[in-house]
Specification:
Blueprint (H helix, E strand, L loop, with lengths): L2 H38 L5 E7 L7 E9 L5 E9 L4 E11 L1 H12 L6 E3 L2 H16 L9 H4 L24 E3 L6 H11 L6 E3 L15 H4 L5
Length: 227
């Protein structure tokens, strides 16, 4: 290889290395910034709370809670709640989003599959989320592990009154509706252990269920308890 070609390759490698280092640093700074904002989120005023229009019809609710940061941008949490059985199935959060971007881009995208979002009271939003988590805990289903972060967008559970109007379970029993990313065999075993045959209802889709991975530790291993 000619000396000039070697120099060009070394220069290109140095540039790639520097670019990757800058990207890693940027990602790290973004994570640090997000956690810094989330650590203070409960002190920010609530901007709004939403759920899909027909959330009472199918056992799943997509709840979004947003708070206004001191700089005018928004921090928000998204909570996929199975109030029939499993509790908080999925959640994520973000921060420092401009208010117009949140209203016109982020919020519609979070509801593109669930249905039109409607504004609800903070009390109802908290009741749906916390009530579902508490209901699912009876059957040893824990909230999604990312709730460790997204719970910081919520007030503590004891701070919001409960109306008692939200029904958890269906017809007085847990009702498991298998989702496309569930491990239904493991969930069914959990229900058999905790409530027993005849004390819950279920609905399974046609087709083969997902195979459990080799390191699957059961439902309790998938999600982590949050204090």
């Amino acid at each position: 290889m000619k000396k000039g070609e070697q120099k060009r390759q070394k220069k290109a490698l140095k540039k790639r290395t520097e670019k990757k280092s800058a990207q890693r640093l940027s990602q790290l700074m973004s994570i640090v910034s997000l956690h810094s904002i989330l650590s203070q989120a409960r002190s920010y005023p609530l901007e709004g709370c939403w759920v899909q229009e027909k959330w009472k019809d199918g056992g799943l609710a997509v709840v979004v809670v947003a708070r206004c940061q001191p700089n005018g941008n928004l921090a928000f949490g998204n909570y996929l709640v199975d109030y029939y059985c499993l509790g908080l199935k999925d959640t994520f959060c973000n921060a420092d989003v401009p208010a117009n971007v949140f209203r016109h881009d982020a919020l519609p995208k979070m509801y593109h599959a669930a249905g039109r979002p409607i504004s609800i009271s903070p009390d109802l939003a908290h009741e749906i989320i916390y009530g579902s988590i508490e209901y699912a805990a009876q059957f040893r289903f824990h909230p999604h592990r990312d709730f460790r972060d997204s719970q910081l967008l919520l007030d503590p559970p004891e701070m919001r009154p409960r109306s008692g109007a939200v029904e958890f379970g269906k017809d007085g029993k847990p009702f498991y509706i298998a989702g496309p990313h569930d491990y239904p065999d493991a969930i069914m075993r959990q229900l058999m252990r905790t409530v027993g045959a005849g004390h819950f209802n279920y609905l399974m889709p046609l087709g083969e269920p997902l195979d459990e991975p080799d390191d699957f530790e059961g439902v309790d291993g998938d999600n982590e308890g949050v204090s």
